[in-house]
Write a structure and sequence with these properties.
The protein is an alpha/beta fold and about 350 residues long. It contains 14 helices and twelve strands. It has a six-stranded parallel β-sheet, sandwiched between helices. Strands 7-6-8-9 form a four-stranded parallel β-sheet. Helix 1 packs across helix 2, helix 5 crosses helix 14 and helix 9 crosses helix 10. The model has no long low-confidence stretch (mean pLDDT about 90).
Amino acid sequence: MDKKKVTFSDIAKYTNFSKTTISRYFNNPDSLTVKNQDIIAQALIDLGYQKNKLAKVLANGKSEFVGIIIPNLYLHYYAEMLNQILNTYKVFGYKFLVFVSRGSAETEREYIQELLAYKIEGMIILSHYIPSKELASYNLPIVTIEREDQYVSSVNTDNYMGAVQATSLLIKNNCDVLVHINSVFSKHTPSYGRIQGFKDTCTENGIRHELILRDLGHSPQEIHKNMSEIYERLKITYPNQKKGLFIATDTHANSMLNIIFREYGALSDEYRIIGFDDSPIAKQSILPISTIGQQIDKIAYEAMELLVTQMDERKKRRPTPQVELIHKKITPVLIRRETTE
């Protein structure tokens, strides 16, 4: 039978069910017994039925779309995370509408209204600018990644453990001083764990250390400018000393590595570098960078799986209200490469 001409009437005739029952299968399958669902599902295969997804959206208001708001794509971490989230389509069947907020809370609010107009079923939020309490007020399944998450479910890396791993590796490299370079974060942000883990590990081991916390820039040009300024400061502050640099992201670590290479033509013995993320740039840089692997593919999968669980619950005839938020932590992996001994 021609796939384009298979109708509800054809399916009803083939299964000896009414058209109303067939309609319920598509719009409210939980209202049918599992046996009847299986009978109709097999009939669709036998008849070569091709779904009219637009009709389904119009019928039940479910778009099978998930909205994603991401702060930028110049940090390789966000680009790779987006790539891995998009790859979950083959597993979960949800499509994505993606907006890049570029650091504006008002812009994010406009994007959310746009997403709601498209009848999205849920959102994954990686951006930091709207507080989670406001996100929760949209009464929509939401999962956040690596941001403040007091009022919504989330999937994050164990940033504290990652910092302990990074700092411990630099200690083993017999550095004279350890420096952590990062942005300024609230203590409620998962990434703050990198700062706290670094401080605690240095203090416990009696290691001289410094925190450099500042705005690191919002474009490749700004990142290079800020990392150059930090490099010049390190040269003046710690001359002829072996400096172990734990840098916020692989993107920033790669920028610092390039600056050192321009001066020495190699990684000077005065520097050891470890980044954070294990984004592709860490492997592809002029010298492969040691890093803390965030298992980005696993975080993306877990975030989507958690969101799908929430969205599926909403589709039930009697959905169970979510009583407790779920916060998953993914264990990071230390990856040794050529920027540490």
